[in-house]
Specification:
The complex is a heterodimer of chains A (376) and B (307). Chain A is 65% helix and 8% strand. Chain A is of the alpha/beta class and 376 residues long. Chain A has two domains: 119 residues, abc type-2 transporter like domain (abc type-2 transporter like fold, 3-Layer(aba) Sandwich), CATH 3.40.1710.10; 192 residues, no CATH class. Chain A has a five-stranded mixed β-sheet, sandwiched between helices. In chain A, strand 1, helix 3 and strand 2 form a beta-alpha-beta unit. In chain A, helix 8 runs parallel beside helix 11, helix 10 crosses helix 11 and helix 11 packs antiparallel against helix 14. Chain A is elongated, with a radius of gyration of 27 Å. In chain A, 36% of the residues are buried. Chain B is α/β, with parallel strands linked by helices and 307 residues long. Chain B folds into two domains: 210 residues, 3-Layer(aba) Sandwich (Rossmann fold); 64 residues, Alpha-Beta Plaits (2-Layer Sandwich). Chains A and B meet through helix 9 of A and helix 2 of B.
Chain lengths: 376, 307
């Protein structure tokens, strides 16, 4: 009698069956191998919490050798990539709003004279502090730049009371450097990416898996009606989620809301559409709900890590930034932070709006190509 | 009157596999037409091509007066298709399922039609029950009710009674005959011989090819079979010896009997009489059944690809 005792042969049978099934399920196998490699690459090479070479604009009203020496010292620190073109104050301010530069450094008109006289002239450093972590390292480097920059140029110069210049750092858009100002608006994008892609992905594959899709196709309903009809409820769910996060942002985390809410919702709507088209497309590629879930995960992981949500975008190498720029979340984060924290208007947002439309168009083209009107 | 279904030369491939070959089918209006054949013979594929769920690779013809290749959208509006597997929504209630299907077909007076369907089903108190919790027989009745909501002219039923108890099957066929009497054409696929015998006409499909069509009686007589019933103690013991007798085409067990069939006039009767006498068995002349005819059809034709 062998009913109660364990059988090694039986046990091996289960192990072998499990391996056979695992090998047949290509996508799961891909995940087992792909996810560790993807994470290694992203965490090992792409992520850098102390970004260098941050774009910096310099407004020099007094282009003397002393100001130039200070700028050269900034460059030498490797934290700043200073644009060579001389800029006006207004133009530099716009670049900061658009997020093209992280720092604007301004020297007052009579900087050199005041310095020589020992009047401790101010250097104004405006920081885009929407992401306080990204700017943290560079700001602390600035504070260390000091008298040794000027002493070789001014023989016999003695800085007054230890400091020759007064460094005025303005943390714009987030003066207290709260990371919640950065994270909470970003969460809108992360939550939408996860739920919209996943829910639509599941909605279509569920019909296919349960066999109800055949019934749906046997009715006069057209593919267009089916696809759009399935999308609309999720648009509403997405808008509801956004409203919840915004309410929490405003009343719990006290995140400022500088820009137009209407504009924000318009952008959110476009972003939702981008994610829904991806979800629908994945669902016509996936054969069942599990595959749809796995594909969503493959999209979600780089979205979280490479979009600038968790780690500073500018800290990543070029290849990672290129991947990041293909993800709708990257652009949405800049847009939503721009509206909420900077109060940006539509014209400032355009450079990050068109990539969303490009994403929708590309994914939609793929989706229409793969959508099966019949059961073929 | 033009036939409800009139198609010629329908072909369908799935990759390398040629699943339906040159299917030609005429089904008259108001007829109950049975579709028989082994698993994988192309019955479901043929039905799906008729209602526009699959596009034939080649072929021509019309269904309810519409072109099967170009007008599948119009065909769908007048066809009720019942899938082999229950394909209504498990997580919708009975009423919600019917209401959804009625909306899909733009049924006029929708709520009245749904209420009527629920009353006809006898599910008045249970319309809020989820469809997924129904038993197999009730799921089948609900599916049929959903197919009938938009008053189709043609019903395509793909193994509608698989897994349904005998009483429910009988009720189901009563309803099919009532619908047929009301002028609705029914094309139904089945594996059950008793159901096949309830059809006006039959088609037998194997390896994607139509091997026989006609009334049940025509199909049986076309095989030219003679059948004898062999009885006796422990008769099953002799089945392989009987199978080896010259001229025997089929031996089938029915309880304490063996049904032995062969061609019409090849002296099998004498052969069997001698065998029975030698083994202490009794032989009587029987009538070949539809099942005998189908088994014979299947055994004496072969897969054109395997040849």
């Amino acid at each position: 009698m062998n009913t109660a005792s364990a059988s090694l042969r039986r046990w091996f049978g289960i192990i072998i069956k499990e391996f056979i099934q695992l090998r047949r399920d290509r996508l799961t196998f891909g995940m087992i191998v792909g996810i560790p490699i993807l994470q290694l690459l992203l965490f090992g090479f792409a992520i850098n919490t102390d970004p260098k070479h941050l774009p910096t604009a310099v407004v020099v009203s007094d282009a003397g050798p002393l100001a130039r020496a200070w700028v050269a010292a900034m460059k030498n620190s490797e934290y700043f990539a200073v644009s060579e073109r001389p800029l006006g104050e207004a133009e530099a301010g716009e670049m900061l709003a658009r997020g093209e530069v992280q720092f604007v450094v301004s020297f007052p008109p009579d900087f050199e004279r005041a310095l020589v006289r020992g009047e401790r002239p101010p250097i104004l450093v405006e920081v885009d502090a929407t992401d306080p972590i990204a700017a943290g390292g560079a700001t602390s480097v600035l504070e260390k730049l000091g008298d040794e920059v000027f002493t070789p140029l001014l023989p016999g110069y003695r800085p007054p009371a230890g400091k020759s210049v007064e460094l005025r750092v303005h943390k714009r858009y987030n003066p207290e450097g709260k990371s919640s100002y950065n994270i909470v608006p970003g969460l809108i994008g992360v939550i939408l990416t996860m739920t919209m892609v996943l829910m639509t992905g599941l909605a279509m594959t569920r019909e296919r898996e349960r066999g109800t899709f055949e019934n749906l196709l046997a009715t006069p309903a057209t593919p267009f009606e089916i696809m759009t009809g399935k999308i609309v409820p999720y648009i509403l769910i997405g808008l509801l989620q956004v409203t919840l996060v915004l309410l929490a942002a405003r009343w719990i985390f006290m995140v400022p809301m500088e820009g137009s809410l209407l504009l924000l919702y318009a952008i959110v709507f476009i972003f939702i559409c981008a994610n829904l088209t991806l979800g629908i497309t994945l669902s016509s590629l996936a054969r069942n709900q599990l595959q749809a879930m796995q594909m969503t995960f493959f999209f979600f992981l780089p979205s979280i890590l490479l979009s600038g949500f968790m780690f500073p975008f500018r800290g990543m190498p070029d290849w990672a930034q290129m991947i990041g720029n293909c993800l709708p979340l990257t652009h949405f984060l800049i847009l939503v932070r721009g509206i909420l924290l900077k109060g940006n208007g539509i014209e400032t947002l355009l450079p990050h709006l068109w990539p969303l439309f490009a994403f929708i168009a590309a994914v939609l083209a793929l989706g229409v190509k793969t959508f099966r009107k019949t059961l073929d | 009157m033009a036939p409800a279904i009139d198609v010629r030369g329908l072909n369908k491939h799935f990759g390398e596999r040629h699943v339906v070959r040159d299917l030609a089918l005429q089904v008259e209006e108001g007829e109950i037409f049975g579709f028989l054949g082994p698993n994988g013979s192309g019955k479901t594929t043929s039905i799906r091509m008729l209602c526009g769920l699959l596009r034939p690779d080649s072929g021509e013809g019309q269904c309810l007066g519409f072109d099967v290749l170009r007008e599948s959208a119009r065909i769908k509006r007048q066809v009720g298709y019942m899938t082999q597997k229950f394909s209504l929504w498990d997580d919708l209630s009975i009423a919600e399922n019917l209401d959804f299907v009625a909306r899909m077909f733009d049924v006029a007076e929708r709520s009245a039609a749904v209420a009527q369907a629920i009353a006809t089903l006898g599910l008045d108190g249970r319309q809020k029950q989820l469809a997924g919790t129904l038993s197999g027989g009730w799921k089948q009745r609900l599916s049929l009710a959903a197919c009938l909501l938009h008053s189709p002219r043609l019903l395509l039923l793909d193994e509608p009674t698989a897994g349904v108890d005998p009483k429910a099957r009988r009720d189901f066929w009563e309803q099919i005959h009532q619908l047929s009497a009301a002028g609705i054409t029914v094309l139904v696929s089945t594996h059950y011989m008793d159901e096949a015998e309830r059809c006006h006409r039959l088609a037998y499909l194997a390896w994607g090819q139509l091997l026989a069509t006609g009334t049940p009686a025509e199909i049986v007589s076309a095989r030219g079979l003679s059948t004898w019933i062999v009885r006796g103690d422990d008769v099953q013991r002799h089945s392989s010896a009987l199978r080896a007798l010259p001229g025997v085409r089929l031996v089938a067990s029915f309880g304490a009997e063996l049904h032995v069939s062969g061609g019409a006039d090849n002296g099998l009767g004498g052969e069997l009489a001698r065998f029975a006498a030698a083994n202490g068995l009794a032989v009587a002349h029987g009538k070949p059944s539809l099942e005998d005819a189908f088994i014979d059809l299947m055994q004496n034709t072969s897969d054109p690809l395997a040849a």
